[in-house]
Amino acid sequence: MKLVIIGAGFAGMYAALSSARLRDIQGISPDELEIILIAPEPSLVVRPRLYEPKPETLTAPLLDLFAAIDVVYVKGSAETIDTAGRKVHTTDADGTRQTVSYDRLVVATGSRLFRPNIPGLAEHGYSADQLADAVTLDRHIQSPATAPATKGRNTVVVAGGGFTGIEVATEMPARLRDIFGSDVETRIIIVERGAVIAPAMGTEPRPLIEEALRKLGVETRFGAGVASLDATGVTLTSGERIETSTLIWAAGMRAAPLTAQIAAERDNFGRLLVDQALRVSAVPAVFATGDAARAACDDLGHYALMSCQHAIRMGAFAGHNAAAELLGLSTKTYHQKAYVTCLDLGEAGAIFTRGWDPKVEMIGAVAKKTKQEINTAWIYPPRAERAAALAAADPERVIEL
């Protein structure tokens, strides 16, 4: 029997851990149930930290972990999925092609930043979405350090006033000071199409976020979007022109394109609709998880968000359930009733909230310490020791806050 997982992000990693855990509990050998993970690189990109400096350091190796739990790693990108023949066709960076057959498939391909067809965005826009994007942005920010100071050089526009946009923008004043010096006047502007900052975070945290932006000198433009951009500036839909050499796009996510190859219903974000066990009901033998799946968290109408917090737990349930089906065992109902956020606000600290209607539990330095613990410890892979790694993957206990 073969269980194949596509993706080495948070959901894919925990799908591998959880399926290996159930295999171990049932006393099934790796020869009887082979668990295979396909990904371009055997490493976890710590995506929630890509707004930070030195993004090239924000990865965690996975080969030793996979070896410890007897998961086979296949290097390559999944190019096509043949659900009728139960095969995945992969291509490596050097052009090497492989075909991997499966008895159960877990699609954990994650998400990508949505980039609309705005004139100049593809040529002149930056992001902190994927690792390569964040590295390119970091190099771009540092490259003009020796050039003459201009408004454009010292101004950064962030398109999107949601979670990612706020973290990118509030980190930027300190990053620019480190590059240009503390005496250089810089300007950070968040552009948000909606009427308020952090539109999805609710009303209670908003005044605290607004105060942090004022403290850091971050400007905002509401009710406007980016109409076009070029090498020297950005024009907003309001008609305002902002001179800048750096626009960071942080507005909107979509499931990775591979999900479109599966003949099943998807939501407006491209996520596959799944049942309570995270099966893609319309397609036999396929599970979806993390940012690739639209899954109900409870029976109150709440659905998993495209977040690390949800991806980890969903991955653990998907891996367990895919293995359980192969072994003739009962599956578990995915549930994730607790929901917290911890928003980094740069030098202004952080905000920790709990609940779908977010209530603030911590602010400032205390919340910042929690944010640092989350980002540097909690979301990293477990150590590559078999018992500890498998114990960390109990789907009923993963990410309990």
Question: How does this structure look, described?
Answer:
This protein is of the alpha/beta class and 401 residues long. It is 27% helix and 26% strand. The protein has 9 helices and 25 strands. The chain has a 5-stranded parallel sheet. The chain has a 5-stranded parallel sheet with strand order 11-18-12-13-14. Strand 16 and strand 17 form a beta hairpin. Helix 1 packs parallel to helix 7. The radius of gyration is 22 Å and the shape is globular. The mean pLDDT is 95.
Quick structural summary:
This protein is 27% helix and 26% strand. The protein is α/β, with parallel strands linked by helices and 401 residues long.
What's the layout of helices and strands?
Elements: E1 2-6, H1 10-25, E2 34-39, E3 43-45, E4 59-61, H2 63-68, E5 72-75, E6 77-82, E7 87-91, E8 97-101, E9 104-107, E10 111-113, H3 121-124, E11 125-126, H4 131-142, E12 155-159, H5 163-180, E13 187-192, H6 206-216, E14 218-222, E15 226-230, E16 233-236, E17 241-243, E18 246-249, E19 253-255, E20 272-273, E21 286-288, E22 293-294, H7 308-326, E23 340-344, E24 350-354, E25 359-363, H8 364-378, H9 386-391
Parallel strand pairs: 1-2, 1-9, 2-5, 9-21, 11-18, 12-13, 12-18, 13-14, 20-22
Antiparallel strand pairs: 3-4, 6-7, 7-8, 10-19, 15-16, 16-17, 23-24, 24-25
Strand content: 25-35%
Number of helices: 9
Which stretches are low in confidence, meaning pLDDT under 50 for 5 or more residues running?
A: none
The assigned structural class equals alpha/beta
Q: What is the number of beta strands?
A: 25
**Cα gyration radius (Å):** 22 Å
Q: Summarize model confidence as the mean pLDDT.
A: 95
